[in-house]
Amino acid sequence: MNVLIVYAHPERRSLNGAINDFTVERLRANGHAVQVSDLYAMNWKALLDADDVRERRSDAPFHPSLDSKHAFENGLQSRDIEIEQDKLRWADALILQFPMWWFSMPAIMKGWVERVYAYGFGYGVGEHSDTHWGDRYGEGLMAGKRAMIVVTTGGWESHYSPRGINGPIDDLLFPIQHGVLFYPGFDVLPPFVVYHTSQMDATRLQTTYDALSKRLDRFWDDAPIAFRKQNHGDYAIPQLTLRAELAEGESGFAAHVE
Ligand SMILES: Cc1cc2nc3c(=O)[nH]c(=O)nc-3n(C[C@H](O)[C@H](O)[C@H](O)COP(=O)(O)OP(=O)(O)OC[C@H]3O[C@@H](n4cnc5c(N)ncnc54)[C@H](O)[C@@H]3O)c2cc1C
Counting C-beta atoms within 10 Å of the first and last residue's C-beta, which end of the chain has fewer, N or C? Predict the structure, then answer.
């Protein structure tokens, strides 16, 4: 299988750097082909702007989504965007690896998503009708591929527990797992979270590697998170609300998992 790891940390000699090296080695040892988009090393341009479109009239107002659509359809996207899209086409699986910064991914990785997920590629795919609201949330160009987050946190596991002050980890990762990954069609595996990173030492790192190895070895066998698909009857269209008889009494993120 082909695995793309999109990785964001400014220092290679970090815990994240060590985990990234380990992940690549383990996947390759298991016979997989691996590419790493090391966003800081690539000096990835994080800002979505008019420079993302080649041969653009400089006097026309820049429209982030319509310019993206035009560039994607006409082969006018900036080359760095096209290269990352090709990596995604090549990949059977995507791993997003990052330290949690301010309860989300580092800005450079958010910029990778914003620019690489062009209109017609990450969103704006498929037909809109009374029964089908675009190919998204379980359908889309990434359908059939798997994805997983590998994230490190300064906070302890208890801080991210159901009643922890940071909020439950599943809730915090929902915008990435459901919004960024499930939306364009990925099957999303449960995340691999390394908590309380200030307490890391060689012994604990070995335990972390052992646990990560198990996850990587079962990557194509583990059940993905059972997010509800948009166009399979669970949601009223076009309201896109969950039907009243499903997950009765539940609301919020958890209601979108079967
Ligand atoms: C801007 C910012 C925002 C943040 N926001 C949040 C937040 O919202 N929530 C939250 O929980 N945390 C937050 N943090 C903390 C952050 O998530 C952690 O600092 C980060 O996950 C640690 O990962 P690292 O790769 O930078 O670790 P490092 O700092 O590189 O290492 C962490 C520990 O692991 C040890 N270590 C490193 N490499 C090895 C190795 N090879 N072998 C053995 N030990 C090793 C180091 O000695 C150190 O003790 C934030 C930090 C920043 C800078």
Answer: C
Distance CA 163, CA 227 (A): 22
How far apart, in whole angstroms, are the C-alpha atoms of residue 252 and residue 174?
Answer: 10
Any bridge partners for residue 148, and if so which? 95
pLDDT for 130: 84
Q: Which CATH number fits domain 2-224: 3.40.30.10, 3.40.50.2000, 2.60.40.180, 3.40.50.360?
A: 3.40.50.360
**Cβ of residue 193 lying under 6 Å from some atom of ligand 1:** no
Question: Which parts of the chain register pLDDT below 70?
Answer: none
In one letter, which amino acid is 25? E
**Does the beta carbon of 87 lie inside 6 Å of ligand 1?**
no
pLDDT digits (tens, 9 = 90+) for 89-106: 999 999 999 999 999 999
- Name residues whose C-beta falls within 8 Å of residue 255's C-beta, 6 or more positions apart in sequence: 242, 246, 247
127 CA to middle of ligand 1, Å? 43
Taking only the tens place, the pLDDT of each residue in 106-141 is 999 999 999 999 999 999 999 988 889 999 999 999
